């Protein structure tokens, strides 16, 4: 950019360069994370985490992003004691990606609903993240977990199409499952199930 302009760099130029470098850094980080998760090297699940606490921290962190578009994050949790064996960094990133995706696709003046419940009979902890957006074509619901998939509909909002792919692999590394479905009267719901600590 500087070579083309052949003039001293101004404040606007500096901000654009910084923005593009941050985007490139984020992309490289996501690609490296995806590559690591696809290598089938199982991470150590040595962190026994309180999932309600983890979700509360994420909601606190991401509420600013939601408020920037006049949206809200609503956390509903029925079990404050649920603990699972986990890799803190990977699970944090997985849940952060899912919630960020919902924020990006929920319209202004709506909310993203995060529900967390213990399913004792199955010894699992279930997390659902529901936005109020346009949803996804039924035939493409599984595609959103593939790397670099960006749908050509109302859900296309920048990004690289890596967030949900990383989330899926990270959840699978925790011996859990993740799926997506459209909810009548709302938008897309991501459903995550994780095994509780024995």
Mind sketching the topology for me?
Elements: H1 2-5, H2 11-38, E1 47-50, H3 51-68, E2 72-77, E3 83-86, H4 88-105, E4 111-119, E5 124-130, H5 163-173, E6 177-182, E7 188-195
Parallel strand pairs: 2-4
Antiparallel strand pairs: 1-3, 4-5, 5-7, 6-7
Helix pairs in contact: 2-5, 3-4, 4-5
Walk me through what this model shows.
This protein is of the alpha+beta class and about 200 residues long. The chain has one domain (about 45-195): Heat Shock Protein 90 (2-Layer Sandwich), CATH 3.30.565. Helices cover about 40% and strands about 20% of the residues. It is built from five helices and seven strands, in the order H-H-E-H-E-E-H-E-E-H-E-E. The chain has helices spanning about 1-5, 10-40, 50-70, 90-105, 165-175; strands spanning about 45-50, 70-75, 85, 110-120, 125-130, 175-180, 190-195. The strands form two sheets. Strands 2-4-5-7-6 form a five-stranded mixed beta sheet. A hairpin with a 5-residue loop joins strand 6 (about 175-180) and strand 7 (about 190-195). Helix 2 packs parallel to helix 5, helix 3 runs parallel beside helix 4 (about 90-105) and helix 4 (about 90-105) packs antiparallel against helix 5 (about 165-175). The longest helix is centred in the first third of the chain and has 28 residues, at about 10-40.
């Amino acid at each position: 950019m500087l070579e083309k302009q052949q003039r001293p760099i101004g404040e606007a130029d500096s901000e654009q360069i910084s923005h593009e470098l941050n985007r490139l850094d984020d992309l490289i980080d996501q690609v490296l994370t995806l590559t690591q998760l696809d290598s089938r090297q199982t991470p150590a699940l040595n962190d026994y985490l309180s999932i309600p606490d983890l979700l509360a921290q994420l909601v606190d962190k991401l509420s600013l992003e939601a408020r920037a578009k006049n949206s809200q994050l609503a956390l509903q949790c029925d079990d404050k004691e649920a603990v699972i064996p986990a890799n803190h960094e990977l699970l944090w990133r997985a849940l952060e990606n899912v919630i960020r995706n919902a924020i990006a696709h929920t319209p202004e003046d709506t909310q993203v609903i995060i529900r967390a419940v213990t399913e004792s009979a199955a010894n699992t902890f279930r997390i659902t993240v529901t936005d109020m957006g346009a949803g996804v074509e039924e035939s493409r619901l599984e595609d959103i977990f593939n790397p670099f998939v960006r749908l050509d509909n109302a859900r296309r909002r920048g990004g690289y199409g890596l967030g949900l792919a990383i989330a899926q692999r990270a959840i699978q590394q925790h011996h859990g499952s993740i799926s997506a479905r459209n909810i009548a009267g709302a938008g897309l719901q991501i459903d995550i199930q994780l095994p509780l600590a024995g």
